[in-house]
Amino acid sequence: MSAQDEQFQAAAPEPAASSADDGMTWWYRWLCRIAGVIGGMSCAFAGLWNCVTINPLNIAAGVWMMLNAFVLFLCEAPFCCQFIEFANAVSARADKLRPWQKAAFYCGMAAFPVMLSLTLTTLFGNAIAFATGVLYGLSALGKKGDAISYARIHQQQKQMDEEKLTGALEGQA
Fold first, then answer.
1. pTM of the full structure
2. How far apart, in Å, are the Cα atoms of 65 and each of 62, 76, 146, 156?
3. What is the pLDDT of residues 19-39, one digit of tens each?
4. What span, in angstroms and rounded, lies between the C-alpha atoms of 108 and 119?
C-alpha cells in the first residue's frame, strides 16, 4: 500500500458522522456545495480581473479573491484539485466543521477583499462566496418546526399572559 492510498483512507470521512451531526438534508448539502463551487469560480474570475490594474489595493484584493477561490475549491470540491496531494485531507477536515463554523469562515473570507478595495468587481466577485456562507449559516439555525407545535406554544403563552393579567387585576381589587 502506497503512502497516497493510506492518505486517501485516512481522509475518508465517516459516513454516519458527518450526515447525522449537522441535520442537513442531502439536497441542501449539494446546494451549499454547488454554491461554493460557483462562488469559487466567480472569485477566481473577478480576482484575475481585479489584478489588471496599477492600484496596489486592487491587486491585493484580487490576489485574496483568487486565494478564496482556491480554498472554496479545496473545501467544497476536492476533485477539482486532484493535482494537490493534501486536497482530500483538507476536504475531510472541512466536512467535520459545524455549519456555523463554515458560515463564519466563508463570510469572513469573502468580506475581507471588499473591505480592502470596495469596487463593483470585488462586490460581485465575492457575492456568491458570501452567499455560500449564508447558506451554511441558515443550516446552522436548524429545521423549521411544524405549525402544530408552534400553535401549542402560542396557546400556552396566551394562557400564561391571561393568568398574569387576571392575577394582577385581582391583586388591585
1. 0.69
2. 5, 16, 41, 51
3. 445 677 888 888 988 999 999
4. 17
